[in-house]
């Protein structure tokens, strides 16, 4: 598994995920086996499966290496088969796979605790690909109107553009207008004092 094959790429290390390059463990980084025999950590597979387009009759996850489809069970990525070979290469304390489950886009794991109802006995990570940021309401008054103006966000660019327009007018357009009007570039009439 450590040597790359040009037709079917394998992980560079048998104990790390070839997507995130983190070492496998028995919780969020559990080595999960896809139907094409490629292995990735549970967190990466869960992230990829939450990024699938909605409203599909059956979730089919394409392998990041070979693009072969893997059916994702209704329980989500934690229900995929675990690579027992890779789990066996881990230290003895990490060889017992922990129970994990999906709650929406959260990957959850129960820590060892005397009280299973204790919310602190559960740890979870959000595996959603991206989260839309909640828009912040604009302030009231003039500051609020200016904050809604898209052009006002680029005030430095507007100032620079205005300065360039003034420079272009003074250096190029004004002498051209003067030459057209007077026939030469002497636009200022000199007053000669007669003695």
From TrEMBL:
Sequence intervals crossing the membrane: 158-176
InterPro entries membership: RING_finger_E3_ubiq-ligases, Znf_RING, Znf_RING/FYVE/PHD, Znf_RING_CS
Pfam families membership: zf-RING_5
RING-type domain: residues covered: 17-67
An annotated GO BP: protein ubiquitination
CDD domains, A to Z: RING-HC_RNF183-like
Molecular function terms, GO-annotated: ubiquitin protein ligase activity; zinc ion binding
Gene3D superfamilies with a match to the protein in the record: Zinc/RING finger domain, C3HC4 (zinc finger)
SUPFAM superfamilies from the UniProt entry: RING/U-box (SSF57850)
SMART domains given in the database record: RING
Annotated keywords: Membrane, Metal-binding, Transmembrane, Transmembrane helix, Zinc, Zinc-finger
Protein name per the record: RING finger protein 223
Taxonomic source organism: Tinamus guttatus (White-throated tinamou)
UniProt lineage: Eukaryota, Metazoa, Chordata, Craniata, Vertebrata
């Amino acid at each position: 598994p450590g040597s790359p094959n040009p037709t079917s790429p394998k992980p560079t290390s048998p104990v790390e995920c070839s997507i995130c390059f983190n070492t496998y463990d028995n919780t969020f980084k559990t080595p999960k086996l896809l139907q094409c025999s490629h292995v990735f950590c549970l967190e990466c597979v869960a992230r990829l499966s939450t990024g699938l387009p909605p409203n599909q009759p059956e979730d089919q996850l394409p392998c990041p290496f070979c693009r072969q489809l893997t059916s994702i069970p209704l329980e989500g990525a934690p229900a995929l088969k675990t690579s027992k070979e890779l789990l066996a290469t881990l230290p003895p304390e990490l060889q017992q796979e922990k129970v994990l489950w999906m709650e929406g886009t959260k990957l959850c794991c129960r820590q060892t605790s005397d009280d299973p109802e204790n919310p602190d006995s559960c740890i979870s990570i959000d595996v959603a690909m991206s989260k839309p940021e909640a828009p912040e309401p604009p302030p009231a008054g003039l500051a609020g109107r200016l904050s809604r103006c898209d052009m006002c966000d680029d005030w430095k660019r507007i100032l620079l553009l205005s300065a360039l327009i003034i420079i272009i007018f003074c250096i190029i357009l004004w002498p051209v207008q003067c030459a057209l009007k007077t026939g030469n570039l002497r636009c200022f009439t000199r007053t000669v004092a007669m003695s």
